[in-house]
Structures are given as C-alpha cells and as structure tokens.
Write a structure and sequence with these properties.
With 662 residues, the protein is of the alpha/beta class. It contains 21 helices and 26 strands.
C-alpha cells in the first residue's frame, strides 16, 4: 500500500479526470449556496471547528457516554494518496445516487488498498478497546483518530495517516452497542444518563399487594403467545412491527388478539393526546389482576408514555415488568431475559441508534401492500406544546444504504407502497457526517427501487422544507404527489410562541411553489386550536390560511397541555368550551374544503393501488390514488389486491371517491 503502488496511478488518473468538472461545479454553485462547501469539508473540519453552545444538545453523541456504549465499528474505506484526492472521492460518493452501493462501487474503482478493494473497501469489525482491525488493514494511528470523532452509522470521515501517502476515506457501516454492560447493569443500581432525564435501572422484584404473591414470569417457549396493543402515530406502528418480529422470530412466540390468551402483553403508547397516562392505567387493569392472582404473565409498556413516565409507571402499577423507551426496541429480547431472572427493568436513557439488520425482520402489517420505513428517529425542534423531543429523543438519521436495504426487503416480499416516516423528515441527514438531505434520499430510492413502487413520506416541517423536495416530488416517477405540511396555526404571534420558526407568509410561499411545480399534488396539514393566548382575531388567521390553501385533508386538534412542555405551564390557558367551539369551526371548514378537493377528480381516470375490501360493502374493494385519496369500486379482492387499477371517478365524497374500472 505504498504510494508507488501502480493502483495509486489509476486512482490519481480517475480522480484528476473528474477534478476539472468538480472545480467548475463548485465555482458555479458557491455563489448560490454554501451547501457544497459544507458537504466537501464537513468530514474533515466539522469536528474541529468551534461550536456554538445551544440550550439543548443537537447531536446524540453529546448526550451519551459514547466510548462506554460503543464496543466496535464495522468499517469500509477507500485509500488514496492525498487529502485533495480524498475530498474529490468523497464528493463523487455523495453525488452518486444511481448505485445501490456507491461507496463500494467507488472503492472497487479507485482504492489503492489491495486487501479490501475487491470487496468494496471492506475492513470489517474493529474493536474500540484495541483500536485495531483483525485484518490489520488500517494503521493504528488512523483508528485512534477515528474513535474520538464518535461516528454514527453511515458517517464518512477523511483521516490522514502518519504513513506517508495514505489518506483514508472511512465509512462506518454499523455500530455494535454494549447493551449488556449499559442497558442492563448486573447489580441493583440506577444509571442516570443524558440531559433528557431518562435513566436505566434494574430493580429486584417484591411481593405484590393483595394476595402477597411474588410476580411470576412465563418461560418464553414456542407454545407461548404475545399480544401488542398499539396506539398513536406511524412511528409506533413501525415500532410494534419490530417488537413483533423479535417476539415471533427470536423468541418463537405466536401472536394473538385475545388478551386472556397472551403470556406476554405489550402496550405501545402515545402521549400526544390528553389523558394518555390514565388510559394506559385503565388498559393495564385486567392484566395487573392476573399478575396479582399468581399467573405467569409478562407486562411490557413501551412507546412515548413509557419514556415520559419512566419509573413512575412501576410505582403506580408494580405489576409491570418492563418500561421500555422507543430507542430500546431492538433490545427487547435482552430485556425480557433479564426479567426472567426476577428483575424489573426501566430503559429510558438516551441511546445511540443501532441498525437492526442483524435483528429479526419486522412482522409487517399493511395487508401486504404498504409499509412504513423509519428514516430518522427523534426531533430537535422543542416546539413549546410538543412532547416528542422528550419522548423520542434527539434526531438520528439512518444511512441511505440502510433505508434502501429495508425498502428492497419489502419490495422483494411483494409490497408496492413504502411510506418514509420521521417526526421531522426534512431534518434528515443534518446530523450525519457529511450532511445529507431528504431530497437526496428520495432521489437515491427512486433510482434503486423496482418497477411501480410508490414512495410516500411524512411529516414535513415548514421551517426546513426545501425547494429540492418539491422538485423531487414533481419530477421523480416513484414519489407520490402528496405533501403533508403541518401549519399548526395561522397567526404569526401564536406561531412564534409555539416556536415553529415560520410565519403565515413564509408558509404560503411554500404552498405557492408546490402549486406551481406540482399542480396536481395533494396538500395535507395539521392544526391546533385554542393554544394559550390565542385570541379570536388570531384564530381567524387560521381560518384565513385554510381558505387560502384548501387542504385535501386536515388533522385537527384542540390544544391540551402535555407533561414536560413549556406551554403547559403558561397562565393564559383557554377555557375548554372556547377550544371546543373553535375545533368545531375548523372541522366544518376542513370538511367543506375536503369535498371541494375531491370534486376535482370526478370524470377523471385515476391510478389506484388496491389495498383491501370495503368493510361496508363486500362487493367493493378500495385503494388510494397517488395523491392519497381513498377510492371505492366494485371488484374481487383476491384478484386485485396489490394491483394498480385505472378507475373512472363517478362520485366525490368528503374524504374519498367512488368509481368504476376503466
């Protein structure tokens, strides 16, 4: 691997052939945007440049003990001779969205490392403790520089070795987390980790009140059954599918919908709505009684209420075995094994995301037609009304390659529609090194997914929404023409107090761009009425915005104070009757607009992806248009499920359409 190796000449030639175009490209765009400069140099200088202190951590590495959590990396690399060549190679990797494995493809073409080049730059697992890879490919000084950078899965760094003529472009494919040492302490103690006040603890069981019995935990064998009760958003649905995959594939349990039959019961909870905690306690009642009567039963509470309440859940309902934050879903098997040893477990501390490619595949729902794929976990926004940052943690983007792999697994299994999900999907990639963006992800998936696959996504944030995403939706054939753009309120002062970061006018500029570039697209949104301090005049601005946009679909909410949010403590809360009256008014207007937007389809032929039968009419099936409108028409599900069917729309309803096969 010396600089005189002939492969360095090949590497140099290939890079120099691209360098002139690269420089011209940079000159062309540097006056328009600094994005390319950020991309080119962030892998080198982002870690050393001074950081402005923020009032909340922005990167998960700031909020965890990285070296304690991470045991090893799985690495690939590209070896070149100079830093300039490494920067050009990095840029080529970032711009290649047509290859399923752009890093491996580039490594095979230009890397001067004979030991890894033929395998796409593969180095393999590297133990952090020894700072040495098993194959001895990387110099030890390179690894010693990589570890303090605290890389996440998908990060790419340029590191120059002390060995002359060796500069490495290193990609972190995966992290191995020391879950046994950190998630489950081997003695009774409490671990407080992170600014989000989460904690991990393992607690010895005590006798239960009533009959004074010790809680009994079932032996997890293949004749045992599990039940998952899921409430909340698409994120919870995706988490439940992963939980089911672990229970079914790893622990050989069978699903049931009957609580009385279940040996393991999981409640995947949502804390967005008011009284979420009390609803959970009500649902737990019958299962707690079984536990007090000495039955062998495992009770697991996960999701946002679990993260929000933590150990308080065990104090309120001591029959619970596990309180599991959403970030610990991949570790369910390990947690249940600890409970078998007579412990209660609370796992709510901040946690690095670990790809679960080596874990069991999710047990998908979606009738085998559509599925959710998470592309970014958490949210950094801290809107004053929202519990998500406290319950879902900081933003952690998945690598584009990992997202593609999951999507390909789905399409290979027959799924036709994939919805990419994230609390703030427009933030995708800003936590990565180098930074990526959501439009790049859409382009990458559109280039590499097969056939007529449909791609949808939720949820956008107007503060970070990019013109590039509008262009992607307008121009990419697999990306459906539907924008979910929550506006929450129409009054600028209310938006400021919500800490949303945009105004009425800036929101409308986005809408106007969408109408111009994608005129047939559906626009959906969310709105909150009755926010603290909202006057009648301010509420009227919400109605004005609705009239100007005319949403295809609108999710409407009356404000309810949520734990650990700023607005919950403000004194200018509105009376419930005022909130209720305003909610009725926005719902009436949303219904009017919904019908208007449906009427534009009448007498038109639309492409419908058939999902299921009409539960109210056995002779009909239903599916959705590319814009997300439900369409009902006569047909046999056995013949049409998962098929694309052209339907002539004959009737418009508020939120759906009726038609006949064309």
């Amino acid at each position: 691997m010396r600089s005189s190796h002939p492969l360095f000449l090949v590497s140099s030639l290939l890079l120099l052939l691209n360098s002139q175009a690269f420089v011209q490209h940079r000159i062309k765009h540097q006056q328009v945007s600094s994005d390319i400069n950020i991309r080119l140099y962030s892998a080198v200088s982002e870690e050393t440049s001074p950081k402005k202190k923020t009032w909340y951590p922005r990167r998960i590495q700031e909020d965890v003990n990285y070296e304690k959590l991470v045991e090893s990396f799985y690495l690939r690399h590209i070896l070149v001779e100079t830093r300039d060549m490494a920067q050009i190679a990095l840029n080529q990797y970032l711009e290649n969205t047509s290859s399923r494995d752009p890093f491996g493809e580039l490594a095979e073409k230009i890397s001067a490392c004979p030991a890894s080049r033929e395998e796409g730059g593969k180095i393999g697992w590297v133990d952090i403790g020894s700072a040495q890879d098993d194959a001895g490919i990387l110099p030890k000084d390179v690894l010693s520089q990589l570890i303090p950078l605290c890389p996440k899965t998908g990060d790419v760094h340029i590191i120059e070795s002390k060995v002359a003529g060796q500069v490495h472009v290193i990609r972190v494919e995966e992290l191995l987390i020391k879950h046994n040492a950190n998630l489950l302490p081997d003695e009774d103690k409490e671990l407080r980790v992170g600014s989000y006040s989460g904690k991990n603890s393992v607690i010895s069981r005590r006798k239960l009140k009533g009959k004074g019995v010790m809680p009994q935990f079932p032996t997890l064998e293949k004749d045992k059954k599990y039940m998952i009760q899921t409430n909340g958003c698409q994120m919870n649905v995706a988490d439940s599918e992963r939980l089911a995959g672990i229970l079914h594939h790893d622990l050989n349990l069978s699903p049931t919908t009957k609580g009385a039959e279940a040996d393991v019961v999981l409640f995947n909870t949502c804390s967005i709505r008011d009284h979420a905690e009390q609803k959970l306690y009500d649902m737990l009642g019958p299962f707690s009684a079984r536990k007090r009567n000495g039955e062998e039963l495992a009770i697991v509470v996960t999701g946002c209420v679990a993260q929000q309440e933590g150990e308080e859940l065990l104090r309120r309902v001591p029959e619970i075995d596990v309180v599991l934050g959403p970030q610990y879903v991949p570790f369910l098997k390990n947690v249940l094994e600890s409970v078998e040893w007579g412990k209660q477990v609370v796992a709510t501390a901040p946690m690095l995301h670990m790809e679960d490619n080596d874990f069991s595949k999710p047990m998908r729902g979606g009738e085998g037609v559509k599925a959710f794929v998470n592309v970014i976990h958490g949210c950094n926004e801290h809107c004053t009304y929202c519990v998500v940052p406290a319950t879902r943690g900081m933003e952690q983007s998945r690598s584009m390659e990992s997202v593609l792999k999951e999507c390909l697994d789905l399409t290979n299994s027959g799924y036709k529609e994939i919805t990419l999900i994230g609390q703030n999907i427009d933030a995708y990639g800003r936590d990565m090194t180098p930074k990526r963006n959501f439009a790049e992800l859409l382009d990458y998936l559109n280039s590499n997914l097969p056939g007529q696959t449909r791609i949808r996504y939720v949820t956008s944030h107007p503060r970070y929404f990019s013109d590039k995403v509008i262009d992607a939706v307008a121009n990419l054939d697999k990306v459906c023409e539907c924008f979910h753009m929550p506006f929450q309120a129409g009054d600028d002062e209310v938006l400021k107090r919500m800490r949303r970061g945009y105004t009425y006018d800036s929101y409308m500029r986005i809408i106007n761009k969408i109408r111009e570039k994608a005129p047939d697209a559906a626009i959906c949104g969310d709105v909150i009425v009755g926010f603290p301090g909202e006057t009648e005049e301010a509420f009227q601005r919400t109605l004005d915005l609705m009239e100007e946009v005319k949403f295809d679909n609108l999710n409407t909410f009356a404000y309810s104070p949520r734990p650990n949010t700023e607005a919950a403590n403000w004194e200018d809360q509105l009376p419930e009757d005022v909130k209720s009256e305003r909610l009725q008014r926005v719902q009436a207007l949303a219904t009017k607009h919904g019908l208007e937007r449906s009427e534009r389809y009448v007498d038109k032929v639309v492409e419908v992806l058939v999902e299921d039968k009409n539960p109210r009419n056995a002779n009909q099936v239903f599916g959705r248009t590319r814009q997300g409108r439900q369409v009902y028409f006569d047909g046999e599900l056995d013949q049409l499920k998962g098929e694309y069917v052209d339907v002539l729309v004959t009737e418009a309803r508020t939120w759906s359409l009726v038609g006949e096969r064309h």
